[in-house]
Design goal:
The longest helix has 59 residues. A five-stranded antiparallel sheet has the order 2-1-5-4-3, with helices on both faces. It has 236 residues and is of the alpha+beta class. It is rod-shaped and about 115 Å long. It has four helices and five strands, in the order ααββαβββα. A hairpin with a 4-residue loop joins strand 4 and strand 5. The model has no long low-confidence stretch (mean pLDDT 86). Helix 1 packs antiparallel against helix 2 and helix 1 runs antiparallel to helix 4.
Length: 236
Amino acid sequence: MMFRGLRISHKLALLVAIVVVTMLTASTLNLLSYRADLVESRRLKTKNLVEAAHSVVAHFHQREQDGTMTREAAQTAALAALEAMRYEGKEYFWVNDNRPVMLMHPYAKKLQGADVSDFADPTGKKLFLAFVELARRDGAGFVDYSWPPPGKPDGTPEPKISYVQAFAPWGWIVGSGIYVSDVDAAFMQKATRTLMAEGLILIVILACAMLISRGIKRALNDVTQATRRLAAGDTH
């Protein structure tokens, strides 16, 4: 019904438009779903890595419990082990305590040993107090805030999602996080590849539509001319 009264070329153009809109809508929904899955997978990976780092601390605590290391030696060894740990090249772990005082941060050395209870990100969020509150309430979880990425020349904070986990015997909180910009970069790579592939498909569809349209017009012209000849009495 919706095509009634339209010329064939217009019907074809409308069909192509519907196909294009459908493809773009499906692509957009798929990309949005991909980004959500990407964020969730990075969050889960960060959680698993912090739990692994937590196990390292537990190992040295066990050494203290066994009497093979003093508490001071065990804590020093645990902090050194975590400070040396990296993943994905630049990602790291930090440790603060419940006061909160920064015990170890491989990049923010000037904060080590400092009271960070008043340390806030550009939005005014006192992130270390947020870590302590979450650790006391739930034992572990995610916190959103902003923090400068390692090696960034201007030191501008960027949105970050961190997972923190309390180590109750020593009153420590172990954490690590992901930068939203890293997720966005991975998403843009996927989006670019997807859009380029769909762009090629659309070019092929449009080219085929143009060829079909020309073929139909040519056939209609032939039929029209033949009809006119027959009406004029030309039977050849």
